[in-house]
Design brief:
- It is a single chain.
- The protein is an alpha/beta fold.
- The protein has one domain.
- Helix content is 35%, strand content 12%.
- The strands form 2 sheets. Strands 1-2 form a two-stranded parallel sheet. Strands 3-4 form a two-stranded parallel sheet.
- The radius of gyration is 14 Å and the shape is globular.
- It starts with a helix and ends with a helix.
């Protein structure tokens, strides 16, 4: 983690999913709430929403299974965009004041 700091990174994500991602003890060990393909995605989102931060992960290479996954991902994003109470932020901005 120190090498990441020295290289100028602001955060690094772990592979652990937690119900509460912020505050975190060290931004070089930031956890996520869930993977974008989790069958519990919306339940986890609703629980995290009450805590103010929902941080999910995914990788574009996972979409190589075909257009169905892209559509599912885009549908999730559309649902977020349609909700005026949701603010999409970059992770860097989310953790910037927590270094």
């Amino acid at each position: 983690m120190q090498l990441l700091r020295e290289a100028g990174f602001v955060y690094a994500r772990t592979t652990e999913n937690l119900a509460r991602v912020l505050p975190c003890a060290d931004t070089m060990a930031l956890h996520s709430n869930c993977h974008f393909m989790s069958p519990e995605f919306w339940n986890i989102f609703e629980a995290a929403r009450s805590r103010g931060v929902f941080y999910f992960l995914g990788h574009s290479y996972e979409m190589m299974e075909g257009p169905k996954l892209w559509r599912e991902y885009e549908d999730k994003l559309r649902r977020f965009v349609a909700d005026p109470d949701i603010e999409w932020v970059n992770v860097v901005d989310l953790v910037a004041d927590r270094k």
